[in-house]
Amino acid sequence: MESKSTYGAIRRNPRLVRYYPYTTGNSSAVKEEMKKEVIQLGVKLSVSVVESMFLLCDDIRTMLFFCYKLWRGYNPRPYPVLERLLRVMHCVYLRDIKPKKRVFKNYGQSVQWRLISTTWEDFSNGVMVMHRLVRILRRKGRSYDDRLLFSAIEKYKQVLKRLDDKLRSKKNVSEKNGFMRETIEPNIYDLWKSIFDEEAKETTYTLKEIRNSIISGIFDPISGKPIHRKIRALPSHTPYILGIDFPKQELKEEVVKLGIELSLLVAQSMFFMRDDDYRSTLWFYLKLWIDATKDRDQDSPVAERLLYVNYDIKPKDKEFENDDARWVQSKVIRTTRKDFAAGIRDLDRLVTILRGEGSYSDGREITSRIEEALKRIDDKLRCTKKNSEENGFAREVMESNILEVWRSLFDKNAKEAWKPRVMRRIVSLTDICKPLLEKTL
Question: Could you please report the per-residue DSSP string of 150-164?
């Protein structure tokens, strides 16, 4: 079963351009930078495997069966990632562990097995995701765009960090047993640095001829022995990262972030106009709602969530000011209306696509249009930042509240519960705009 992604803290770049460290060159250069980082991550994964071997080496049977499960548990084919892990295991076992003549307990269990068993899912996901990254980056075509690969790499780093944190809790034990990270890392890097080389592909096939001797050298002590029952019981995992649902789920996360950004820009506009005339604030809010909901034969999930933006915006005075309707601030805000309408329309369309089971192949094009619209709005509102904040606009505070509203966007269980809330907010919107309508009449 694939594990699900969760929405984390939303970080905003002031210029509305997401930070992708690989977007400074052409596609080929971007891919090369990713390959370099994946090599380093492969080294980190291997170091964690080695550290677990040193933790388990008080019982050789446990250690070898764990290595065998990790190596053989995925696919019998000699994949490049698995071949390198096998060579790392073999080298460490013959050079650092076997010569010390550690205890071989029949049907025994390492003292550290309880800890290592908690790392199994991270190890399992670590090997599989690394295999996926290498396979994708070895291809000539572009099966994933750079954003998805960057997101996958960032999420993969978190997998390795969790793994490292668990193993570091017994750092004193592994080092006492002979684990020396600084000495081991350079040797492991020499194995991984060629994983994307064309010549290395041929070398990998050549390894098939010597892999039998490697397998024999490390796994002969457990050959024909019944596998450790607790290791046999370790479950298989299908990681979320770069899995079947990964592109769609990542797009959903981007939509949530774009929705939050849209809401914050609406709020900034309203706080800015609040200083001049609260009536102009209400007009802006009402027109946004009309633009978002007109000519629609279904509900607008985006407009429904924008209903919550006005929660903290109250008029300064009970009476309307500037009765002659000369609203200075509204002149600035009027220039954003077209982009707001376009952003809401495209975001609604994308939500509808992602809520269905159909194709979302044009999702990246739509998100690009939304980002461009929000960037234009942000550029126009840059001059309003000081006034908005003086009038009470606090991005960090509002961001956490708005996140709670948007995180349920694709939650089917929350959909039914959401409708009564929307109706209450529509009634509230009517009450809010009542003074405006009465004044107009």
Answer: HHHHHHHHHHHHHHH
